[in-house]
Known about the structure:
By secondary structure, this protein is mostly beta strands. It has strands spanning 2-6, 12-16, 24-27, 34-40, 45-50, 55-60, 67-71, 78-84, 87-92, 97-102, 109-114, 151-154, 161-164. The strands form 4 sheets. Strands 4-5-6-7 form a 4-stranded antiparallel β-sheet, with no helix packed on it. Strand 2 (12-16) and strand 3 (24-27) form a beta hairpin. The protein is elongated and about 55 Å long. This is LRP1B protein. It holds the Pfam family Ldl_recept_b.
Amino acid sequence: xxxxxxxxxxxxxxxxxxxxxxxxxxxxxxxxxxxxxxxxxxxxxxxxxxxxxxxxxxxxxxxxxxxxxxxxxxxxxxxxxxxxxxxxxxxxxxxxxxxxxxxxxxxxxxxxxxxxxxxxxxxxxxxxxxxxxxxxxxxxxxxxxxxxxxxxxxxxxxxxxxxxxxxxxxxxxxxxxxx
Length: 179
């Protein structure tokens, strides 16, 4: 799945399949400017920062079990968001510091370090990745991902895929080759 935020005409958090199909709103009320998003891949939670409401909130992948992690002045001007173990990590763009927020006890907010300039944060650690099983976009014996001549995108599940073409090409009638 692909998760993303939008705060155009109607603010929301959405998800879709990697090929863009099955687009679904998972949060569309009591939300104003969702600007950063992070996923807990193991427990299937979506966290986001709303810079207008000065809040960090969470829902499950279906948009259920919504609750506020923390809210208020102490977390104004946040950008970027990452999840690792019991904590959320974010950047306060006002004073350029990295904040650590206990995701189970939002009152535990600590400033970890100062930065010269940052707008995003990522945690790179082997435990943040779930195990990968075989999938429909694996390279075939001819070196083509999922049998697609250009781009292979996972679809509704790991066994389904959609082939796409680079700009200037059209997908052939076989649904795999680009011309």
